Amino acid sequence: MEELNAFRQEIKERVDMEEAVLAKVTLPRKGRMIGYAIAIILLIVCVVLIVNRPNGFLIWVLCSYVLVCFAWLLLFLPTSRKEPGFTKKKRAYKKMHLKSSIKTIAKRRKRLFAEVWIDSFLYGNVMPTIAVGVIFGISIVFAIYYGLVEDKIPLDLVIVIVVQGIALILLRVILIVFRPYARGTLAVPGAFKGKLTSARRRGRMAFVIGTMVVFIAILVTGFVLIMGMLLPGTGLDKVREFLTANGNANLYTIIIMFFVMYVIFRHFQSIMSQPLARDLSSSRVKRLKEEALQPLDQAIGKAGPQGIPPSKKEFDLLRLSYYRVAIYKFVKHDWFGLAPLYFIAPDMRYMFDDRVLELLTTAEGIGGVAGRSI
Question: What is the pTM of this model?
Fold first, then answer.
């Protein structure tokens, strides 16, 4: 009973923290319309620079590639205000055990460790969808104009800019539609396998069609991932080579363009962050209550003075339901109160807890069997 009550207290504290996050991200944003007005004015300034400065368009493209590759580094700057639900809590693991915990993860928990970080990374790539759409949409339109109408840039450069721009946008659309981070990314292959098994039971033709659909989905996703994540540097090199060969890469224009572009990027990133966080936070609160807290309360009620406590297997299932949610936490980043971003990150209190790792590993990761039924 003592262990049950201690675990209930842990869940209750986490639910309170998550509800504080939900309350925060549900509040209307102050200065939203002013932010839109500033972003639109800055977009007009950028278009003026693109049209009037020598090679202004290519400087815009150059800055956009640099931004999409390195904007995440700015999230590490200590500019965030502390708020309920986002304040750092004292770590539950001891630093003296950190080295042995890392060795344990390296030897036996690599898949789980990778899954948690991949989920966080993919969620972080959803937030800039609108920003990427605006910035690279402008790149695509001007690339087609300057390449095919004005004939000022070579066709191979036009193709690189257009294809990579579409891939960067499409990648984020795919993440929004399928939300792999919400069910455990590494459970997705198992989901496809489950669908093929189901199709095989319905007959040969259904299996063939299902196989083709899965193959096309993997092919398209792989292409988008490569073009959208791994090859922006290729476009950056091509633009830089062209500017070097043709001159007119004015440093002041680059600095101004990059600063203005980042403000635009951050505004739209922040705008999209709030509804994403609201939906995910609401889901997390619901799961914590319905899958962990309520069943635990029922178990405690049955295990009263005359009752029977839950078996180890039942207790482990309750803990598993909780840890699948709690292993992630919400992190907030803003610029001294402006343009807040809400994203998920691994909760290192649990990442270095061997009992948690053992449970999640046995259950085949964050998604497990449940994550396969997509």
Answer: 0.77
